[in-house]
Specification:
Layout lengths: L7 H14 L12 H5 L70 E3 L10 H11 L12 E10 L18 E10 L14 E9 L2 E8 L12 H8 L15 H8 L5 H8 L13 E2 L4 E4 L5 E10 L8 H10 L3 H11 L5 E9 L1 H5 L20 E10 L4 H6 L12 E3 L3 H17 L66 E3 L10 H8 L3 H16 L4 H11 L4 H11 L40 E5 L6 H13 L3 E6 L3 E4 L5 E4 L1 E2 L10 E4 L3 H8 L2 H12 L3 E5 L3 H6 L10 E3 L2 E4 L4 H12 L11
Parallel strand pairs: 13-14, 13-18, 14-17, 18-19, 19-21
Antiparallel strand pairs: 1-12, 2-3, 2-10, 3-4, 4-5, 6-8, 7-8, 7-11, 8-9, 9-10, 15-16, 20-21
Helix pairs in contact: 1-14, 3-11, 4-5, 5-14, 6-12, 6-13, 13-15, 14-15, 16-20
Function: Decomposes hydrogen peroxide into water and oxygen; serves to protect cells from the toxic effects of hydrogen peroxide.
Keywords: Heme, Hydrogen peroxide, Iron, Metal-binding, Oxidoreductase, Peroxidase
Protein name: Catalase
Length: 766
């Protein structure tokens, strides 16, 4: 029988057959409990229909004296041609780099199911250490970022809960440096990709540096640091072709998360508009993990950290985000820089959810699980201080690129919980900086050095800056008078949590609830936010080339909401599959089934329009007086009007107004602006109507729900762009205004009020 010719189509068919054999991750149910921890199951495998399925490329059969033949199935040759560096893992067991079989690749070694992770876990350390050193010199994740200096001011002293330096007295000011970032993309990627955003704050306290390293989303994809390299490998560009950049819409990511149902809650956040924020200045920040606050008496409370922007939480819509990628790759970087340069300093309020271990034990979820939130209805967020970013860096590389954030950097009064994901980060971040910044002395790079004095017996190493006097480099000593000396109880002392458990790899039973809070998030959204979540899933899954992966993900979404799964399936041309088996068979009775705080609409902001960019279209022949009056009104309230014409330079306007276009329709498309004003004047309107970019400019503003004002004759431009059917009336839809010159002040005030709402989501395609 002739051997079947392998083509991309046959490879895709065989890949579909292979993936379809693994309907779900049946081992998830076996990851929980003491007995399962002692006897972890082997990994789930399936035999490929052909060798082509597991190949990186169909061209591997093309042989040269250098390349040699394709890798033999299951082999790892180490001598000869380049075949020696190819390996195939078919039917092979998982091992360490030294060939030791790994019984459990899901969990780090802990002292009890809820106990601390143990330093002796050589498997975790090898895996994470190798991962930390996989890229030089840019960060493996969070490579693309933007940062600023600022201050944090405490509202009150919090000695009841903590002795942490920033909270020791009312009004205390602590310098900070904050870096915002995307996660998946490389340093040269785009700003507006759908992604989680990093939100890392370095507090330069008088008792050392405290790094609050968080994200703009309060939950994460995985529960244990053992899976972090796997997650990032899955979301990064696929290794056989290096695509796609800065995006999760591809096979390997959705293959992984569809087999890790614990990721579902975070997927809901990422597929919502939270994944495409309007600005770094308009997104929340979260510490993600449960930490501890410890007071001077050694009393501990659990704590969750929340940053809330005073400008409110606002996001882009997907069509807008995708178009901005082509118009301005640095959209978020530029927005932050320009606002600070203009003196419009972004501000956030820090809030704490403080609760006892006894309270935590009574929750239906486990606070050590980083895929869970503590709903604000259970524990309200207590405002404790305000952060203002008021200075841009002098040098991007020296500060923004070289800043090193580490979750291990805490100060007395702040300590860790036994969150197994946090435990791995405590090790990983320090290890990464050693590799990326050239050795163990990265703390001496100016942006990383504390304002508190540093004295210890650490010496030498690459790039050492300090020149120590004397001959003492040890403790205890007498030659140096016993100095530097340990500070005892005044220094950092770990909270003495009692531990008396078996050494096991596993998860507590509550960690097995993968869907309750994902459903909570869904049920807490407005109808238009739900539509956007559906659209996010549809777009991402439509980019997946293997149908079985789409079907598997849909079967998981059925457990979140049948309505969600139905709408996503409709866009993919699929039927709704049966629900994926849950790892937790017992029904969970959640304390909260709807939380308004989870909607973007919960934080509308101060209602000001400061820093909002308003496009004003110009052309020879417009009526200039009304534009000048509106321009003045916008400047007065702190908005940023931008005059845009067919070309740069002076515009011949009526009434001898001196107007000058600072941008053009070609270099400044409508997606870069928060609102639009169209001018009066028949001659000028005719010139704008003849420009091919005008209709697109207006259509994007309309479809993205932006506020639009058309004065007099320009109402016909709205008709031409399809925004309205008739050039009459003064308010045609939410955020859409038409006015005559005599109504300008009144309608202008209404326009500014509508601008403060950021977007009108029930209009157009928004």
């Amino acid at each position: 029988m002739a051997k079947r010719k392998v083509t991309p189509d046959t490879q895709a068919e065989d890949t579909q057959d292979l993936v379809a054999k693994i309907k779900h991750n049946a081992n998830k149910a076996l990851e929980h409990g003491h007995d399962n921890a002692l006897a972890p199951p082997p990994g789930i495998t399936a035999d490929p229909p052909s060798e082509a399925v597991t190949a990186s490329t169909l061209s591997e059969t093309n042989i040269s004296a250098k390349t040699g033949a394709a890798a033999y199935p299951g082999s790892n040759e180490t001598i000869g041609t380049l075949v020696r560096v190819r390996a195939d893992a078919s039917a092979q067991r998982l091992t360490t780099n030294h060939g030791v079989p790994i019984g459990d690749n899901q969990n780090s070694l802990k002292a009890g199911l809820r106990g601390p992770a143990l330093l002796e876990d050589f498997i975790l350390r090898e895996k994470v250490t190798h991962f930390d050193h996989e890229r030089i010199p840019e960060r493996i994740v969070h490579a693309r970022g933007s940062a600023a200096h600022g201050i944090f001011t405490a509202y009150d002293e919090l000695s009841e809960f903590t002795r942490a330096a920033p909270f020791t007295e009312k009004g205390k000011v602590t310098p900070v440096f904050v870096r915002f970032s995307t996660v998946a993309g490389e340093r040269g990627s785009v700003d507006t990709a759908r992604d989680i955003r990093g939100f890392a704050v370095k507090f330069y306290t008088d008792e050392g540096n405290w790094d609050l390293v968080g994200n703009n989303i309060p939950v994460f994809f995985i529960q244990d640091a053992m899976k972090f390299p796997d997650l990032v490998h899955a979301v990064k560009p696929e290794p056989h072709n290096g695509m796609p950049q800065a995006g999760s819409a591809h096979d390997t990511f959705w293959d992984f998360v569809s087999l890790m149902p614990e990721s579902t809650h975070t997927l809901m956040w990422a597929m919502s508009d939270r994944g495409i924020p309007r600005s770094y200045r308009m997104m929340q920040g979260f510490g993600v993990h449960t930490f501890r606050l410890v007071n001077a008496q050694g009393v501990s409370h659990f704590v969750k950290f929340h940053w809330k922007p005073l400008l409110g939480t606002h996001s882009l819509v997907w069509d807008e985000a995708a178009k901005i990628q082509g118009a301005d790759n640095d959209f978020h970087r530029r927005d932050l820089w320009d606002a600070i340069e203009a003196g419009e300093y972004p501000e956030w309020e820090l809030g704490l959810q403080i609760f006892t271990e006894e309270q935590a034990d009574g929750f239906s979820f486990d606070v050590l699980d980083s895929t869970k939130i503590v709903p604000e209805e259970l524990i309200p967020v207590r405002p404790v201080g305000r952060m203002v970013l008021n200075r841009n860096p002098d040098n991007f590389f020296a500060e923004t690129e070289q800043v090193a954030f580490c979750t291990a950097h805490v100060v007395p009064g702040i300590d860790f919980s036994n969150d197994p994901l946090l435990a791995g980060r405590i090790h990983s971040y320090v290890d990464t900086q050693i590799s990326r910044l050239g050795g163990p002395n990265f703390h001496e790079i100016p942006i990383n050095s504390p304002i508190a004095p540093v004295h210890n017996n650490q010496r030498d190493g690459m790039h050492r800056q300090t020149v120590h006097r004397g001959k003492v480099a040890y403790e205890p000593n007498s030659l140096g008078g016993g100095c530097p000396f340990q500070t005892g109880e005044m220094g950092f002392v770990s909270f003495p949590q009692r531990v008396s458990e078996d050494k096991v790899r596993g998860k507590p039973e509550k960690f097995a609830d993968h869907y309750t809070q994902a459903t909570l998030f869904w049920e807490s959204q407005t109808d238009w936010e739900k539509d956007h979540i559906v659209g996010g899933f549809r777009f991402e899954l439509s980019k997946v080339t293997v149908p079985a992966i789409r079907e598997r993900m849909l079967s998981s979404l059925v457990n979140v909401s049948k309505d969600l799964a139905k709408e996503v399936a409709k866009g993919l041309g699929l039927s709704v599959p049966k629900a994926m088996p849950k790892a937790l068979s017992e029904k969970v009775d959640p304390e909260v089934t709807q939380s308004p705080a989870l909607s973007l609409t919960a934080l509308p902001g101060t209602g000001e329009v400061r820093t909002r960019k308003v496009a004003i279209l110009l052309a020879d022949g417009i009526e200039g007086d009304s534009i000048a009056r509106l321009h003045a009104m916008l400047i007065k309230v702190g908005a940023v009007p931008v005059l845009i014409g067919p070309q740069l330079g002076a515009v011949k306007a009526g009434n001898k107004q001196a107007l000058e276009a600072k941008a053009t329709l070609e270099n400044s498309p409508g997606v870069l602006f928060d609102a639009l004003i169209l001018p009066d004047g028949e001659a000028g309107v005719e010139v704008l109507a003849a420009q091919k970019q005008t209709n697109e400019f207006i259509a994007n503003q309309y479809n993205h729900g932006k506020t639009i004002l058309a004065i007099g004759a320009s109402s016909k431009l709205l008709v031409s762009a399809g925004a309205v059917k008739s050039a009459s009336g003064t308010k045609m839809a939410d955020g859409l205004f038409m006015a005559a010159g005599k109504d300008l002040e009144k309608v202008g005030a209404s326009f500014i009020d509508a601008l403060s709402k950021h977007r009108h989501p029930l209009r157009g395609g928004a």
